[in-house]
Write a structure and sequence with these properties.
With about 70 residues, this protein is mainly alpha-helical. It has one domain. Helix content is about 70%, strand content about 0%. The protein contains three helices and no strands. Helix 2 runs antiparallel to helix 3. The longest helix has 23 residues.
Amino acid sequence: MKIVQNARAIALRSYSMWAFYLGAALLFIPEIVYIASGADVDPRWRFLGLVLFIVGGALGRVIDQGMNKE
């Protein structure tokens, strides 16, 4: 396995990575809210949000984001 040369730039600026980060946050934030306050979050919103982030991440993989391999 070989890591790309600009891995740090990709991890910080690419659309698909941000969709991944936001999707992970969407999984954990409701649990943190429940632990902190006891308020439960409707799981339908979490599911729809995750689906949108998955679709956005897939689209972000094919959009030219102006990051060269240099």
